[in-house]
Design a protein that fits this description.
Elements lengths: L1 E6 L4 H12 L2 E7 L11 E5 L8 H12 L4 E6 L15 H25 L5 E7 L12 H22 L6 E6 L6 H7 L9 H9 L6 H12 L9 E3 L4
Parallel strand pairs: 1-2, 1-4, 2-3, 4-5, 5-6, 6-7
Length: about 240
C-alpha cells in the first residue's frame, strides 16, 4: 500500500489531489481546517487542524502516520497556503502577515521535518511542496506570498541536497502547478486594484478560459509523483514537463 498525506485537502487542488491519489490506489490522510466536505472513502482518513498553529504540527503528523499505518511508500504533499494579505510592503497587517508566514512556510518546513523523522528511513519517501511562479517573480501587493514561496523553494533545495547524501534519500520537489481555477483565484480577482495592480491579468485568464481545472492539475502532478523523473529537479514548473 502507498500512503499520502495532503494538506489543504478540503477544496481546490488539495481535494483534487486527494481524489486522484485515492483513484490511483493510495491510502490518503487529508488535513484541513474542516474536512467535512470530503466524500467518504474506505482509504481516506480526515484530520481537522489549523496548520497555522505551529504547536499542533508534531501531533498532526503523528496522528496522520499512525492512521496510515505501515506502508511501502510515504508521500507528503504540502498544499495548504494563502495569498493573503494582499497589500504593499509598507502596509502589511501584522496578524495576517504572521499567519501567512506560519501557513505558507513554517507549516511545510515543520511537517517535512516530522515526516522525515517518523517514517522509516529505508522506505520510499517523496515530498511535494506546492509553490508558485510568484516565488521567482515579484508581484506588487504579494510581498508576503512571494517571500514565503521563495523561502519554500530554497528550503526544498536544501532538503534535497541533504537527502542526496543519505543511503536511501527522500526525494523532495517544490512544484509550480500553474494557474488553477480555485478559490484562491477568486480571491485574487476580487482584490482591491490599488493593493494589487496585477488583478487585470488574472481577470483575463479567467475570462479567456486559460485556467487549469483542479482535476487536470492533480492528474498531472500525481502522474509526475509516480514517474521515474520525480526528484531530478528540486524546483519545477509542472507545465515544463
Amino acid at each position: 500500500m502507498k500512503a499520502a498525506i495532503v494538506t489543504g485537502a478540503s477544496r481546490g487542488l488539495g481535494a483534487a489531489l486527494s481524489a486522484q491519489l485515492l483513484a490511483d490506489g493510495y491510502r490518503v490522510a487529508a488535513i484541513a481546517r474542516d474536512c467535512g466536505s470530503l466524500p467518504q472513502h474506505p482509504q481516506l482518513i480526515t484530520l481537522d487542524a489549523d496548520l497555522a498553529d505551529s504547536q499542533l504540527l508534531p501531533l498532526i503528523m503523528e496522528r496522520a502516520l499512525a492512521a496510515l499505518g505501515s506502508c511501502a511508500s510515504y508521500t507528503l504533499i504540502n498544499n495548504a497556503g494563502t495569498v493573503q494579505p494582499i497589500a504593499s510592503a509598507d502596509a502589511l497587517p501584522d496578524a495576517a502577515t504572521l499567519q501567512a508566514v506560519a501557513l505558507n512556510l513554517s507549516a511545510p518546513m515543520l511537517l517535512c521535518s516530522h515526516f522525515l523523522a517518523h517514517t522509516p528511513a529505508s522506505s520510499q519517501r517523496r515530498i511535494i511542496n506546492i509553490s508558485s511562479g510568484a516565488a521567482a517573480n515579484p508581484y506588487p501587493g504579494w510581498a508576503v506570498y512571494c517571500a514565503t514561496k521563495a523561502g519554500l523553494d530554497h528550503f526544498t533545495r536544501t532538503l534535497a541536497v541533504e537527502q542526496a547524501a543519505r543511503e536511501v534519500p527522500a526525494l523532495a520537489v517544490s512544484l509550480y502547478p500553474g494557474v488553477i481555477d480555485t478559490g484562491m483565484q477568486a480571491e485574487i480577482r476580487s482584490a482591491d486594484p490599488s493593493a494589487f495592480p496585477g488583478r487585470p491579468r488574472f481577470e483575463a485568464l479567467k475570462a479567456d478560459g486559460e485556467l487549469t481545472t483542479p482535476e487536470a492539475a492533480a492528474a498531472r502532478i500525481v502522474g509526475y509523483l509516480d514517474s521515474p523523473a520525480f526528484g531530478s529537479q528540486s524546483v519545477l514548473d509542472i507545465r515544463q514537463l
